[in-house]
Automatic annotation (TrEMBL):
Family from the record: Belongs to the actin-binding proteins ADF family. Coactosin subfamily.
Localization of this protein: Cytoplasm, Cytoskeleton
Gene Ontology BP annotations: regulation of actin filament polymerization
GO cellular component: actin filament; cortical actin cytoskeleton; site of polarized growth
Keywords annotated in UniProt: Actin-binding, Cytoplasm, Cytoskeleton
Metal-binding is among the record's keywords: no
Gene3D superfamilies the record matches: Severin (3.40.20.10)
Protein species of origin: Parasitella parasitica
Every ADF-H domain range: 2-135
Gene assigned in the entry: PARPA_10006.1 scaffold 39144
Domain of life: Eukaryota
Protein name stated in the entry: ADF-H domain-containing protein
Pfam (any one): Cofilin_ADF
Length: 149
């Protein structure tokens, strides 16, 4: 059975994160109660990575979408997007098994992102790790302080 992604609130939340005029910089999508194959918007906010990570639970699986500002210097500010397939450590075996298949459906809504950061622990989602991955994905990097590539 495929994942139901028809709820307009899903694409609205995705577009809100992408909108440069919106303060919303993250959204999290998980499964509706009692409907393990129906995606819903579980939360969104403007507090960045730290607020997003606070919302993640060990017994929840879902997908996060983040807008992050990347800069190598004061002149090169760029907006980048991160897809976070989240599977908490306490998620059941059957749910875990479905996630990789359902990711294909999720990517029909969340179509634009620069990197994918799978995580099962909030320790997997540090700002340094994400920024390093974004820099590597971006090609040329002239930031001398980030030479650990």
């Amino acid at each position: 059975m495929s994942l139901d992604i028809k709820d307009p609130a899903i694409s609205d939340a995705y577009e809100d994160v992408r909108n440069d005029k919106s303060e919303t910089n993250w959204a999290f999508f998980d499964f509706a109660d009692g409907k393990p194959d129906r995606l819903q918007v579980a939360g969104f906010g403007n507090g960045g990575l730290s607020e997003f990570v606070e919302k993640l639970k060990d017994n929840v699986a879902g997908w996060g979408y983040l807008r992050m500002n990347l800069s190598n210097d004061e002149y090169s500010q760029r907006v980048k997007f991160v897809l976070v397939p989240w599977c908490g450590d306490q998620v059941g075996v059957m749910r875990k098994a479905k996630l990789s298949v359902q990711l294909t459906e999720v990517k029909k809504v969340i179509t634009s992102f620069h990197v994918e950061m799978p995580a099962s622990s909030t320790k997997d989602l540090t700002e340094d790790d994400i920024m390093n991955k974004l820099r590597r994905a971006g090609g040329a990097n002239y930031d001398r302080q980030s030479s650990n590539y």
